[in-house]
């Protein structure tokens, strides 16, 4: 009798550790030896699960997206008095944006966009974030105004940019915690409303 294949479970168990290591060291400085050490295994164990370091990095981008999407889905599922789903996501993001430091994966990935696999992973991740945010804005505006202005797509990209600015502000210590929270909350509310 053959042993069951536990590869997907092992990948899922290692992904949070590998993501933190890439976020801490960046793509180039995170050697497979460092990644294996962080996971408490030998390098050959990681190579049984992924073909190379790049595949590990690409997997962490997907992991980061899933983590965010799951958190937002949980927030949306909670019914709050007088708040739309978009407002609940905005309030959550204002409080928790960047606290795990995984936004650094995006910054690390942006230095590797000459690699088509990394570029595709980032493009797909951003497209999925954009789609989710645009849907939330459209529903929010429809519920509150009865009409959906044409600039929902642009507003969604502005939200993506807002998250990036907050990450830069955190990373370079240009914005303190209260400033980051206020920036996200106040500019996010303006984007949600369409500037009304």
Please, could you describe this protein's structure?
The protein is mostly helical. The chain has a domain at 59-193: Tetracycline Repressor, domain 2, CATH 1.10.357. It has nine helices and no strands. It has helices at 7-29, 32-39, 43-49, 53-77, 85-96, 103-110, 116-145, 152-171, 177-193. Helix 1 crosses helix 6, helix 4 (53-77) runs parallel beside helix 7 (116-145) and helix 7 crosses helix 8. The radius of gyration is 19 Å and the shape is elongated. The termini are far apart.
Q: What value does the Rg take, in angstroms?
A: 19 Å
Distance between the termini: 66 Å
The average pLDDT is: 91
What is the H/E string?
HHHHHHHHH
Instruction: Compute the number of strand runs.
Output: 0
How big a fraction of the residues is strand? under 5%
**Tally of contiguous helical segments:** 9
User: Helix content range of the residues, please?
Assistant: over 70%
In short:
The protein has 196 residues and is mainly α.
Attribute tags:
mainly alpha; Tetracycline Repressor, domain 2; 9 helices
